[in-house]
Amino acid sequence: MSKPKKIPEFKTEAEERAFWESHDSADYLDWQQAKPAVFPKLKPSTKTISLRLPEALLDRIKIEANKRDMPYQSLIKAWLAEDVNDSRLG
Q: What pTM does this model have?
């Protein structure tokens, strides 16, 4: 493999994103030297949303959450994540 090219300096994150969308990282990094990275304290960012649900549906969700001994918001997130993951697979 030839010597990797120098990665340019970027003024903005958008500029860097555009660069990597059109360039192969193998030209700039020696992936043979790469090592796995672990970020144990990294937490995904979250955003608060307002969601209107029929009261009867919310009551049923709360009952299901109570059966699982978990907050109903956590159950909704778990169901949504599972549904999104399933739809990506098939």
A: 0.50
